[in-house]
Amino acid sequence: MAAERLRIKSIDAWRGLALATIFVNHVPGTAFEHYTHKNFGFSDAAEVFVLLAGFAAALAYLPRFAAGDAPRQSFRMVLRAFQIYSAHIVVLVACAALVAYASVATQDPRLLEAMNFDLLTATPAASMIGIATLGLQPSYLNILPLYVMLLLMAPALMTLVGASWPFALTASFAMYLCAQAGLGLPSYPGVDNTWFFNPFAWQLLFTIGLCAGSMAVAGRTLLRSRALLAASVVYLLFALAWKKAEIYPEGVLGLPRFLWEDDKHILSLPRLLHVLALAYVAAYLPVESWVRKWSFAAPLMWLGRHSLAIFGLGTILAIGGQVLRIVGGGDPTIDLLVIAVGLGLQVGLAWALEWNRTGGETKVAAKTAMRPRGAEAEQPAQAL
């Protein structure tokens, strides 16, 4: 069926933009970080990417899943989860080696602590267990474990979406509430902490993406409502004002934390509503037409199309950039070098992967930009 090969180029472009933003955010303290969208509302690029991952998963797996090929598609999702797991292990080891080398070269063991890799040297045996079980997640190395869990949940979520997306959303929201009540996965080593990204909370955003993607697969358009659009814009403006006013309330009339707190760990309601408002407003923009007409959008599409490799490289480069900033004392020249070279290397890798995918056509995105939707013979998007 045609839907099996559906690819929406604007999704690739948005994912590419989210990846670039994640890289900038993962080198904290630079001037560039002040211009990413986390400074203008409650959510950041992580929420955008999880929502798009759910949408992309629907495009990649749902058509055949719903057509009776659920066992094979479920196996493909589990296989993809293992690929992401393997990538996480490689990236974590590479980052640990990079920080360890910097610590040895500068004879400053505090680098390990500053970069949250000190557990690896303090409790090496327990840390090996933590790495293998995803329980050990140094800072900035906690996103891929979330995607592993989301893809392992995806077959069940997709079954619910295929049966009834209102029921799927209800069940997903019930799990979200359980996460707010304390359901989570424990970190290891250590007994007092849980995963930074609680997968039982974040699966709600992934499920919403699945539902939106299922509508695209079925050829249905998003509900367009001026009232909902106005409400989304008002909420975005409210979030902007709240963020710029730097309001940090201790409590709101005794309400549960997730209803008012800006908490990324549990995907609190203000963050969830913010990314959904952003997505709804963005859906009104003719982004699909723009990326098909403008050849300079090609690098963003390359980044989004090869998201796992780009995210892995970006994480290693970001950790390296943090080390350089610590050693260099926050020199603005180093900041510019880290961000420019880092983004350039990621675009270069994305270009090479796209060149390999298309059999040497390095300008494939620009050449296909004017083709009608569905005309390009491409593989469906991956969830990550």
Automatic annotation (TrEMBL):
The keyword Secreted belongs to this UniProt entry's keyword annotation: no
Transmembrane segments: 45-62, 82-104, 116-134, 140-160, 200-218, 227-245, 265-287, 308-328, 334-353
Keyword Transmembrane helix: yes
Keywords: Membrane, Transmembrane, Transmembrane helix
Family matches, as InterPro entries: UCP028704_OpgC (IPR014550)
Any one Pfam family match given in the protein's UniProt record, by short name: OpgC_C
Protein name as catalogued: OpgC domain-containing protein
Organism of origin: Alsobacter sp. KACC 23698
